[in-house]
Amino acid sequence: MSQREKERLVQGEKEDANDDLLGSVLMGKMPSMIYDDLQMSISFQGNGLSGSIPWEIGEIATLEELRIDGSNLTGKIPNFIGNWTKLTILDLQGTSMKGPIPSDHSLFINCGGKNITVEGKNYEEDLNTKGQSNFASIENRWAYSSTGVYMGNDQANYLATNEYGLNVIGAEYYKTARLSPASLKYYGLCMQKGSYRVKLHFAEIMFTGDQTFASHGRRMFDVSIQGKLVLKDFNIAEEARGVGIGITKEFNDVWVNGSTLEVHLYWAGKGTTSIPEKGVYGPLISAITITPNFEVDTRGLSAGAIVGIVVASCAAVVLLLVLLWMKGCFGGKDLENKELRALDLQTGYFTLRQIKDATNNFDPANKIGEGGFGPVYKGTLSDGTVIAVKQLSSRSKQGNREFVNEIGMISALQHPNLVKLYGCCIEGNQLLLVYEYLENNSLARALFGKEEEKLNLDWKTRKKICIQIARGLAYLHEESRGYMAPEYAMRGYLTDKADVYSFGVVALEIVSGKSNTNYRPKEEFVYLLDWAYVLQEQGNLLKLVDPILGSNISKEEALGMLNIALICTNPSPTLRPSMSVAVSMLEGKVPVQAPIIMHSSDNQDARFKAFEILSQDSQTRVTTFSQENQTQSSMSMDGPWKDSSLSLQTTDETREYSSSSMLLDKDLYDVNLL
């Protein structure tokens, strides 16, 4: 295709983004190098194009439709259609292309090693040295993605070898391995539907079995297959009863209902991190074996048969848009899209068009809240899924690579008391986060909203909410470290005490039904917390209990929860408990002691107590710096939840949200009131 024709095509796109090339008189080879990496539909129906499908199209991970029927294309149906995990329509009718639609029924990967043959099976090499947020498609049959940065060791390798000369017992693939500091996912692409036997092969080759320092390392991680947890706190050396000994964990009934099989290994912050050297931790795997439990039909399909089963049976009533582009005309987009393809393996990627359709172009009627970074909208995707869209007010100063990595970390978090992140959208200056929609909206609205919005929460429900918030925070603090940047979580750059303080304020508000910042029983008290301190000193703390609860409440439980709230809001961060201890107290597993409140002076005016607390509390928040761009970022709970996750920087100053006065204002969106 000539340069003029390419320019004409791109110009046509600009004039009408919904046009395709149906019936256009195009001759020659199918154009290459002008495709948008994020487009969903390509149609060259009825054209005179010849040759084969260019490999560049195989790089479009978001492709949902490919229509080239009626053209003169020839050759074998390419294997790279396995990259199109979202493909729903493939129409090749009338072409001269031959061969079967590629689909796999078995997979053999030598993780971190070269091509080898074991028991007659060829294990494909996995030698890509890149790690963080990297998507590498090998032979177009499988892929992997890795999340995280090794703490204290910028030169850490993502491939492991038998450095200590261990006498490795087992097959050849046990001598090498792939590892990751946080999350490692392998994907079998274009798999046939059915039941599979999955074997995961492990051997600990980074520790020694002697009495040296290198023998004291402990590696622990979790493993999920198809989203189901199959191994918890897995320790390779312990299971194999020694280092350098191969061990296989077999799972006999793994179902593939779509076309992708996912194996996910992730570190939960347990084990050692600096033995035998800094940055030796996280999941490690030697090989993967996937074989079918069903009888395999090895017969090929003709082009006519392909048309019969063509996924185009959905027979398009509407021909979707074609977005073609000149290479480099949108400056810097190629790098961004490669990073977004990596992100798409960790969490979903949504186009701006999808988000606009879901929210009716950000209709104000769909606005359900306003947070520190921007508004939150309710939306409905084309498949009927209801979502909450967080529209960040401006583009983060982080680079795409850092943002992709952090979104990957957040999406890897799995806990029933955390809001699920479906994905994100990055287009132009738009930065959008897509979460599951919580029907009952926020706890703030339920407690402090207008009369028609309030929910009459009984004591049982309030107690349940309080415990579940505590469990979610405890998970973030103590079980999800593998998904946080290790320099935040393991080197003292992150304190959890600010979250503990904020939780105490929320617990106080849940029991009292009053806002910490808006309730002033007397002029001398600035915050609800001031009044709570006075009542606690007077021995009359139960006076805080929400009167609408009436007599239908356990006074013992209410007093216990109020005491826990005061313990968590102690002005001294060192005297606040960890969230796991708070959970144990709420569940009655640990006795609740009377709170000890430290006073800096006996004659201090209560009006300034809360400000002193917030001032001391702010000292527990530490700003960290990106090694690449020295841009500040902080840990907070902003998501649609506040003070629990990663915050994104949107101005020249780092925003921090551990202050209780901001916790329940407009952004506490994660409490699902069941």
UniProtKB/TrEMBL annotation:
Signal peptide as annotated in the record: none
Keyword terms of this UniProt record: ATP-binding, Glycoprotein, Kinase, Leucine-rich repeat, Membrane, Nucleotide-binding, Phosphoprotein, Receptor, Repeat, Serine/threonine-protein kinase, Signal, Transferase, Transmembrane, Transmembrane helix
The keyword Disulfide bond is annotated on this UniProt entry: no
Main location: membrane
Example of a GO MF term: protein serine/threonine kinase activity
Name listed for the protein in its UniProt record: non-specific serine/threonine protein kinase
Keyword Hydrolase on entry: no
Catalytic activity: L-threonyl-[protein] + ATP = O-phospho-L-threonyl-[protein] + ADP + H(+); L-seryl-[protein] + ATP = O-phospho-L-seryl-[protein] + ADP + H(+)
Subcellular location: Membrane
Topology with respect to the bilayer: Single-pass type I membrane protein
Polar residues: compositionally biased ranges: 627-636
Annotated Gene3D superfamilies: Galactose-binding lectin, Phosphorylase Kinase, domain 1, Ribonuclease Inhibitor, Transferase(Phosphotransferase) domain 1
EC nos: 2.7.11.1
Region feature Disordered, mapped onto this chain: 627-652
Membrane-crossing residue ranges in chain numbering: 301-325
SUPFAM superfamilies reported for this sequence: L domain-like (SSF52058), Protein kinase-like (PK-like) (SSF56112)
Domain Protein kinase stretches: 362-674
Organism: Acer negundo (Box elder)
Enzyme class: transferase
GO cellular component: membrane
